[in-house]
Amino acid sequence: MNARMLRYGAIGLVAFVIGLVAFLPARVAAGWAEQMAPVSLGGVTGTVFAGQASYASGPGGAVENLQWTLHPAALLIGRLSADIRIDSDINGFSAEVSRSLFGATTLENVTGSASAGWLAKLGGYTFLPLSGDINVDIERAAFDDTLQFDALSGQIRLGNTRWELLNPPVQLGQVTTALTNTEEGVQLTVVDSSGPLALDGQITIDNSRRYRMEAALRARAGADQRLGSMLDQLGKADDEGWHRVREQGRL
């Protein structure tokens, strides 16, 4: 057997294996995934490279209508990469997800929206006193299995917010925060606020899950009078009318 025949034989074998995997039913791969990780997939259809599940659940909660498209070329450099999409109660979320053999996970172009209540239930919380719509636009997030970030950039916008513990609810407005990764940890910084509540400040979460929050709040002209009463409970306002809050603890 000459070198040319060996080369063609190797090419044919690789093509056969790729074709076999490409058409492997997704439900078979889902069974393997459930044996290796604490996840459960239901209603799985399609193939390993392009499939969907009616639901996916794990320790952190459950999502519906998960769809994925794998990128086979990434396997050649030791990465598992895919485009994914999940439903939410508003517009759903999409992202490019990749994971290396060394345990590093990268999310890119994460976009989508959901209600604060939907996301709270996903995290295991049955009730939030604050309601609103959350819009996510994350350019890139890279982290390891302990959730220590190597990179993070993007924005989270909270709109149509209301304080639900009063009847009728108190309108608060909209807030946009920037997500960054610094030497101190992950930072969420308010870059814009509009509506009845003026808000400025920053939250820092370090690698040990300790957080530090510094915020300044005040009611804008024309706001619901009850909003001013709520802010007075935070303490006396300064000469410029801001109620300043400093908190720290562990998540």
Describe this structure in words.
The protein is α+β, with helices and mostly antiparallel strands and 251 residues long. The protein has one domain. It is 18% helix and 52% strand. The protein has helices at 3-22, 26-36, 116-122, 225-232; strands spanning 40-42, 45-46, 50-58, 61-70, 79-86, 92-100, 105-115, 130-143, 149-163, 170-182, 185-194, 197-205, 210-219, 243-250. Strands 1, 2, 3, 4, 5, 6, 7, 8, 9, 10, 11, 12, 13 and 14 form a 14-stranded antiparallel beta sheet that branches. The radius of gyration is 24 Å and the shape is elongated. It starts with a helix and ends with a strand. Residues 1-21 have low confidence and may be disordered.
List the helices and strands and how they pair.
Layout: H1 3-22, H2 26-36, E1 40-42, E2 45-46, E3 50-58, E4 61-70, E5 79-86, E6 92-100, E7 105-115, H3 116-122, E8 130-143, E9 149-163, E10 170-182, E11 185-194, E12 197-205, E13 210-219, H4 225-232, E14 243-250
Antiparallel strand pairs: 1-3, 2-3, 3-4, 4-5, 5-6, 6-7, 7-8, 8-9, 9-10, 10-11, 11-12, 12-13, 13-14
Provide the number of structural domains. 1
Helicity range: 10-25%
Shape category: elongated
Q: Work out the radius of gyration.
A: 24 Å
Share of residues in strands: over 45%
User: What is the succession of H and E elements?
Assistant: HHEEEEEEEHEEEEEEHE
* N→C terminal distance: 64 Å
Task: Give the mean pLDDT.
Answer: 83
Q: Strand count, sense and closure of the main sheet?
A: 14 strands, antiparallel
- Count of DSSP strands: 14
**Weakly predicted, low-confidence segments:** 1-21
| Number of H/I helices | 4
**Oligomeric organization of the protein chains:** single chain
Q: Structural class, judged by helices and strands?
A: alpha+beta
